[in-house]
Amino acid sequence: MKWERIPLGPLQTNAYVLVHENGTCLIFDPGSEGEKLIKHILEKHWTPLAVLLTHAHFDHIGAVDDVRNQWSIPVYVHKKEQHWLTDPMKNGSLLFMGETIIVNEADVLLEEEKTLTIGDFSLQVLETPGHSPGSVSYYVEDAQAIVSGDVLFAGSIGRTDLPGGNYEQLLQSIHRQLLVLPEETVVLCGHGPETTIGAEMDTNPFLNGF
Fold it and tell me: Where is the Metallo-beta-lactamase domain (predicted)?
């Protein structure tokens, strides 16, 4: 199993494509530039099975419908942010971009921590609120990786000054849900480069002393 990071849009939000050896794949956070993302996947001859959102801020959802319509695949998001997809105020696009980003409602609402089985993929859904109320992280043990969205970055953490953000809650999410994973687990971040759980435990200034 492998993954590819594809930065998209003006904020260079990372879309991740997790690819099984059989050629099927999962798409995480297709934030913008749908044509670019679709072209890349088609050139690789991968077969997408689903779109999974870590949260519903505008820079993570902009290409959702492009991808969903291309392959007729379901979109997953946490129930707490189900209405953010259709509301440009809630997803922040109107506030920060001065434009409306609206996508159709999700096909599957995540309401609790669980294990998702999609094709040959098995993912553990971890609720990691703090950056936003419905932020989730997807732990893929077979790939020794976790898709963290904007919860944890290399040397930093997600911002908490947006509507529904909570600094203490974010730190609790990171410590209770992420830092308990094996230290070699690769963190696939919503922006910037990948890191590992071990590296963040050792060097992340926001986590030391909490």
Answer: 12-191
